[in-house]
Amino acid sequence: MSDAGPPHKRRVRYKGTHPRAFSEKYKELDPDHYAADVEKVMARGATPAGGHRSILVAEVLDILAPKPGEVAIDATLGHGGHSMELLAAMMPGGKLYGLDRDPAEILKTEARFRQAGYDQSSFVAVHMNFADISLLCADGRSGGMVGGADMVLADLGVSSMQIDDPVRGFAFKFDGPLDMRMDPGSGPSAAELLLSIREIDLCSMLDDYSDEPEARIIARVLTQRRGTVRTTRDLRDAVEYALEGRVESDDIIKKAVRRTFQTLRIAVNGELEALDALLAALPGCLNPGGRVAILCFHSGEESRVQRSFQDGLEGGVYSSISEEGVRAGPEERYGNPRSSSARLWWARKSADAGMTVQGRSFATGTETERSASGSPITGIS
Ligand SMILES: C[S@@+](CC[C@H](N)C(=O)[O-])C[C@H]1O[C@@H](n2cnc3c(N)ncnc32)[C@H](O)[C@@H]1O
Question: Which pTM does this prediction carry?
């Protein structure tokens, strides 16, 4: 008998040049069998489907400076690329709490950490919105964390795994239901949002969240087509129709489509509200001398982070902050186009600053629990 393991199954061949199903197309989804294909995809500057390439990893490590025995919170665990590197530097004795609001992806990432040898004493996966981070820090729920963290990392937005999966409805490369929820169990989908949103509010969102110059006409068409924009292709078609004859270049239309998708994603997930809550809670979560690094991808995120860090510096909560967002170098930008829009901002908490979370002191612990996001918090490990 052979001990070569289970027989290798051929992947289902897709017919024609335009496969309809994601699962039929990408060899990269099975990296064990198609390692060479994964390498080829990466060499041409693309991200393998179903994977995620972490951005500015060396710079994040430099800023957070993890040490053995420290405690870290990765507020956006995702594929776990940053966390894996942080944890390695925190051993022995370190502990990392990985938060994600995506119930499916966090399970897969947790399994990867267990396989890498990290048990509950060093890695705790927590399914929660980082808007509620103060509950995790303050009362020791979701894995027994009491007190503060030496490091907090947030790599904002969505992962390639989420974008690449048409069922999640984040992109129009393949048609899929217009969903866009990072946590499909929480709140209305993008299609549902479009059923009720007022034209004027949608117009402001397109302007505020994505600086869309054609916000008015896009908002008008999307509200006129109310009830018929149910899939990612419906949304793309509606934006293209709105701009037909108004703008010259296909490139401008493509950018408008991308900005419309980004706007709806931000709205559906309450991304800016969650970021505001995280920024407000950070001083209470960090130990004195603790470090925070936040990767931003658009001006709406950046301006909030900058303002909060600047206020913290002026108020004595932070002892130093980044003056400029750290950007990826040309090599990383070529190898991972998503890194082109990334800016890394950081702050260091003053060594003599206290540990107050939105008016609640760790020492007295008298305030009742609040969930800023309204979502449940689940320790899944
Ligand atoms: C860009 S990915 C993080 C990738 C990760 N740094 C890595 O190296 O693999 C962002 C992740 O954060 C999660 N996320 C975004 N907003 C969140 C929030 N408010 N609370 C918790 N998780 C969030 C998304 O579901 C996604 O998995």
Answer: 0.84
Give 332's contacts (C-beta < 8 A, 6+ positions apart).
55, 56, 339
Write the pLDDT tens digit of every residue in 242-289.
Answer: 999 888 788 999 999 999 999 999 999 999 999 999 999 999 999 999
Report, as an integer, the average pLDDT of 25-35.
52
User: What domains, with CATH codes, occur in the chain?
Assistant: 57-155+272-380 (3.40.50.150), 171-269 (1.10.150.170)
**pLDDT per residue as tens digits for the range 127-185:** 999 999 988 886 555 444 657 899 999 999 999 999 999 999 999 888 999 999 999 99
What residue's CA is closest to ligand 1, atom 5? 78
CA angle, corner 343, sides to 342 and 348, nearest 5?
A: 140
| Residue 98 phi, psi dihedral angles, 5° rounding | -105, 115
Angstrom distance (rounded) from CA 220 to CA 213: 14
- 13 CA to middle of ligand 1, Å? 33
Strands 356-357, 360-361: pairing is: antiparallel
CA distance to 58, 85, 93, per residue, from 90 (Å): 15, 9, 7
Question: Model confidence over 77-104: pLDDT tens digits?
Answer: 999 999 999 999 999 999 999 999 999 9
Q: Which atom of ligand 1 is nearest to the CA of 100?
A: 22
Burial code of 341-368, b = ≥16 C-beta within 10 A, e = fewer?
ebbbbbbbbbeebebebeebebeeeeee
For the CA of 105, the closest atom of ligand 1 is 27
From 292, 291, 260, 287, select the one nearest 275 (Cα to Cα).
292
Kindly give the interhelix angle for 250-268 and 199-210, rounded to the nearest 10 degrees: 100
How many CB atoms neighbour CB 323 within 10 A?
7
Find the 158 Cα to ligand 1 centroid distance in Å.
6
Which residue's alpha carbon is nearest to atom 25 within ligand 1? 102
Average pLDDT, the chain: 85
Which distant-in-sequence residues (6+ apart) come within 8 Å of 42 by Cβ? 48, 53, 335
Residue nearest to atom 3 of ligand 1 (CA): 78
**Angle at alpha carbon of residue 65, lines to 59 and 71, rounded to 5°:** 125
